[in-house]
Amino acid sequence: MGPFSLAPKPRHRSEDEEREFWSKADSTDYIDWKQAKRVTFSKLKPSLRTISLRLPEMMIEELKLLANKMDVPYQTLIKIYLSERIRKELESANA
Description:
mainly alpha, elongated, 3 helices
């Protein structure tokens, strides 16, 4: 397709069907990306799942002390520490 003759966007019966279609299709045949505008979805939050995690009481107290010094909730500090470690492990696995 040329830049002036875009194909009509197909209709899909399910998200799986649509996902399969876009995994093989060239979007430039259907969308004029030169007219696209960058947007930020600032209100979106990642999906969260609640889990139970058993930690030694002393570890929780130490986390609370550290979190207090950093002025963040201790559960947030746990997420920060986990995120940093996960990123580090993934980087070393890809090296």
